[in-house]
Amino acid sequence: MTLIRFCLILCSLIFLHSSQSYCEDIKNSTFNATYHQLDNGMNIVTIPNRRSPIVVHMVWYHIGAGDDPIGKSGLSHLLEHLMFKGTNNFPDDTFSRLVALNGGRENAFTSSDYTGYFQRISKQYLPLVMELEADRMRNLSLTEDDVLLERDIVLEERSSRVSNVPSSILMEQMYRALFLRHPYGTPVIGWENEIKELNLHDVLTFYNKYYFPNNATLVVAGDIDVEDVLTLAKQHYGSIQPSEIEERIRLKEPKHVSPRRVLFKSPQLAQPSIFRFYLAPSYVSEDRSYSFPLEVFSEVLGGKITSILYQEMVVKRKLATWAGTSYNPMSLDNTTFAIYLSLKEKVSISEAEIALDEIIAESLKDGFEDSRIKAAKGRMAANLLYSLDNPSGVAKIFGSALSIGMSVNDVENWSKKIDSVTADEIMNAANYVLNADKSVTGILIPEKENYNAIKNN
């Protein structure tokens, strides 16, 4: 996943017929986003989009699971749940009922780097959702019973989405193996034993430390007038007092000196799968110069069914039913470059791994044809153009970007950065990242499989 892939839907047939015009459109167009900051330090991003009479209203707090206190994993995610418990002004589920009664939708999400709350609603109700969201920024009302009840719900969520899903179990263990010291190795939802110990004091301490306007970004996209949004933002958010927010300082990764392997067997599985994670740069990490070339590399190697990995593993060698890559540079610290394979019946792990390593080695040695790089850039530019149809997706791009320290201009200039990437830069980035010593390979196999038959030779 890349910066633009929050909201992409690629219409490849249209692109094939008119790639040149798409590239020209991208160069001459932007999201038309504007940035302002309230006197209390709250960031405001507005993104007009007249395609339909709706607005997307999002508040992003620059705090996430990567900032949970040691021993209290899952705290930021639990607080996200509890933010819907109400305030004295809008008690219990009044917030959610008002949004629903006026035809809107709402939800929230927690990542390692940020926590977001959003509403999608008809434009005339923008003042309502601003009032509701601003109110709970500082007026959340909770009891110990609220926390205990929601804690049980989170534990059930973990059970259903992680503990009973083989791929989720493997991913959790792989992240723990990849990030030896950094908090990205801790699951966003938290470890079960630590979730069980979270209490009202923990939640309120966290809330009263981080939920302030100068630690938040407001993104409003859709059928809006910029000046109207700013007036409403000043009215509802402008009076909230800021607080001193400490700099986010996280534990650093030590040097990685050896590849790691994780195996998980489950009777729920029918066929084996292979996953490989490499430690990779983000848009804002110290080695950020590799991030844009690595996005192009990911698109060429495993972005689509026309990619090298899919064509080799699925079409030509017939070892897998699916093959691809994933890379998300939208991260405060170093992130992951991932490769994944779903194997065909009777294909051994060792055979598939050997083939995968051969393809990677050949790509690193020979590089890519200019035509492949050009086509990949064209697809990425088209994805950007299509994203303009989705106000929610665009709002997510800007919200996540500002939450990790990027600017509106960084987002607006993304296509230019991608377009300027050279073949040499792509291969330098690939050789920098695809280092076995900075990798974890995960093997997911059916219970009946014999482990001795799948170990590396």
The SS-based structural class is alpha+beta
How much helicity do the residues have? 40-55%
> What's the overall average pLDDT, rounded?
92
Low-confidence stretches: 1-29
SS strand fraction:
15-25%
Number of strands: 11
Secondary-structure element order, N to C = HHEEEHHEEHHHHHEHEEHHEEHHHHHHE
Domain module count: 2
What is the secondary structure topology, with strand pairs?
Layout: H1 12-17, H2 19-27, E1 34-37, E2 43-48, E3 54-61, H3 75-82, H4 94-101, E4 105-110, E5 115-122, H5 126-138, H6 144-163, H7 166-178, H8 192-195, H9 200-210, E6 216-222, H10 226-236, E7 260-266, E8 273-280, H11 291-302, H12 308-316, E9 320-327, E10 335-343, H13 349-366, H14 370-387, H15 391-403, H16 408-412, H17 414-419, H18 423-433, E11 439-446
Parallel strand pairs: 2-6, 7-11
Antiparallel strand pairs: 1-2, 3-5, 3-6, 4-5, 8-10, 8-11, 9-10
Helix pairs in contact: 2-14, 3-9, 11-14, 11-18, 12-13
Short summary:
The chain is an alpha+beta fold and 457 residues long. The protein has helices at residues 12-17, 19-27, 75-82, 94-101, 126-138, 144-163, 166-178, 192-195, 200-210, 226-236, 291-302, 308-316, 349-366, 370-387, 391-403, 408-412, 414-419, 423-433, and strands at residues 34-37, 43-48, 54-61, 105-110, 115-122, 216-222, 260-266, 273-280, 320-327, 335-343, 439-446.
Structure keywords:
457 residues, alpha+beta, Cytochrome Bc1 Complex, Chain A, domain 1, 2 domains, 6-stranded mixed sheet, 5-stranded mixed sheet, 18 helices, 43% helix, globular, disordered N terminus
